What does this fold into?
Amino acid sequence: MPAKGKHRRPKSLRFSRSIAVAGTGGAALALPLMGATGAHAATQATAVAQHAEKAATAAPAEKAAPAATTKTYAVRSGDYLSKIAEEQNVSGGWKKIYSDNRSAIGGDPSLIHPGLKLSLGKKAAHAAHAAHAATRTSTAAKSEQATPAADTAAPTTAPTTASSSSSSGYTLPVDSSTVGTGYKVAGSMWSSGYHTGVDFVVPTGTTIKSIAAGTVVSAGWGGAYGNQVVIQHADGKYSQYAHMSSLSVSAGQTVTEGQQIGLSGATGNVTGPHLHFEIRTTPDYGSDVDPVAYLRSHGVAVG
It folds into this structure.
C-alpha cells in the first residue's frame, strides 16, 4: 500500500544531478580558460607576423657598393709617370702608378715607352670611398651643436718648409735643398778634375723646374750627362739640368720660373739617381760658375 503522498526520489537521480552540476561547473571553469589561452597565442602569432612584415617593408634594401674599376692607359710619346698621374687624377701620384705596374715597367720608373699599357687602378672605389667619407663627415657635422662665434678657435696655419723661391723670380730646381756632391769637389771621375756643378739628392721621377724664366737652348741626350736641358736666362747665364729620366720641353721653347722641364733620373754616367745642376757663362761644358753662390745671390736658400 503506497504511503500517502510521500515519494522518495531515487538517490541515483540526485547523484546524476550532482554530476551534471559538477560537469557544468567544470565546463564553466575549463572552457573559458582554454579559450583565453588560445586567443592570447593567436594574438601573439599575429603580432609577430605583422612586426616581421613591417620590418621587412621598412628596411631599405642595401645598395651594393660600386665595383672597383681599373682603367687601362696606353702610354703616348712624351709621357712620363708624373704627367700621367696628374692628367688622369691618380691618387698617390706617379709612385702609385709605378707600384701598380712595376712588373710591366721594370726596375726603372723612368723607362716607359709608347704603347705600354698601364693600369690606373681603383679610381671608382676611391671615389666611392671619398663620397662615403664626405657623407659621414656631413652627418657628423649636422649632429654637432653650433659653436658660438666668440668661442671659435683661430684657424691654424699648416707648417711651412724653407722657401725655395724668392721675389727676384728665381727658385730651386727641385723641391729639396739637400746637396750631395758640392761644386768643385776634386776627383778623377770628372774629366775636368773637379765637379762642375752640384748634385741635388732626389729619387727618380722627381719634378725638375726651371730656376727662372728663359729660353731652352738644348734638350736631349748629352753623353755622360744623359738626358739634359740647358736654359738661357735674362742675365746671360745658362742653367743646366742633367741625368734626367724624361724631358718635357724642347729647344727654342720659352719657360717660366718654376715650370716643369722634366723628371730626375739616373741617365748617363752616374752611380745613382740625382739631379746634376750647373750655372754656366755659355751653353757649353767648361764655362761653369758656382751654382750655389748664383742661387743665393738671387735670394734662393740652398743647403
